[in-house]
Write a structure and sequence with these properties.
The chain is α/β, with parallel strands linked by helices and about 200 residues long. The chain has a single domain, classed as Rossmann fold. The chain has seven helices and seven strands, in the order βαβαβαβαββαβαα. It starts with 8 loop residues before the first strand and ends with a helix. The mean pLDDT is about 90.
Length: about 200
């Protein structure tokens, strides 16, 4: 039986391609715990016809109490200019600019690809140089978009000294069971989530 509505607004950011079933399951889990789920896939983000899709989505992040983000091999749509950011990426950045509770999960393919490429070197004329990921592109191969690795690096705050990182936990997952286990562990007690929200509001 679904729990009583707690009116905590949870924004779920994710690309949708090949992830519809998982998003349906995620929505059901959170909704059953009484949360108000903002998810573009389910059409539950408040829309303003005078605004763009990007504005409607980032406004949803501005209005939410809690953010859940998924980093997947697919980078997503909404890239308006060459080298620009997708809607999902900008949702992440909007959430990270706010001091609200964030929960980030990453597909194991993204984590594996990042580790593989970070250990890759180019040997030329007897010299070995570390591969420059900014010059690598998987954008059109349908397997991995390297821009997702950049988003992962932002989420774990890879440019910040390890001892200074705060809020950099990214949970790796393989399938929907891993996702549900993690979200169930974090969200089954709304009182704990309310405390996190209140603590973020009173933090100096």
């Amino acid at each position: 039986m679904p729990a009583k509505r707690n009116h905590i607004r949870v924004f779920v950011a994710s690309t949708v391609y090949n992830f519809q079933y998982q998003l349906d399951q995620i929505y059901q889990l959170l909704d059953n715990y009484g949360y108000d789920v903002f998810m573009s896939h389910k059409g539950t983000i408040a829309l303003d016809s005078k605004k763009s899709n990007l504005e409607n989505c980032t406004n949803g992040v501005q209005e939410c109490d809690v953010f859940i983000g998924f980093i997947r091999p697919d980078y997503g749509s909404g890239v308006l200019t060459e080298g620009g950011l997708s809607i999902t990426h900008q949702e992440f950045q909007t959430a990270m600019s706010r001091d609200i509770p964030r929960f980030v999960l990453a597909d194991s393919k993204v984590v594996f690809s990042r580790q593989l490429l970070r250990q890759t070197s180019i040997i030329e004329a007897g010299k070995t140089e570390r591969l420059d990921l900014s010059k690598v592109s998987f954008k059109k191969d349908g397997v991995m978009d390297i821009r997702c690795i950049g988003l992962y690096d932002e989420a774990i705050q890879s440019e910040t000294p390890l001892a200074s990182r705060i809020g950099n936990w990214v949970q790796e997952y393989v399938d929907i069971n891993d996702i549900k286990l993690h979200l169930d562990s974090q969200f089954k007690y709304p009182e704990r989530i309310k405390k996190l929200i209140n603590d973020s509001k009173t933090k100096v």
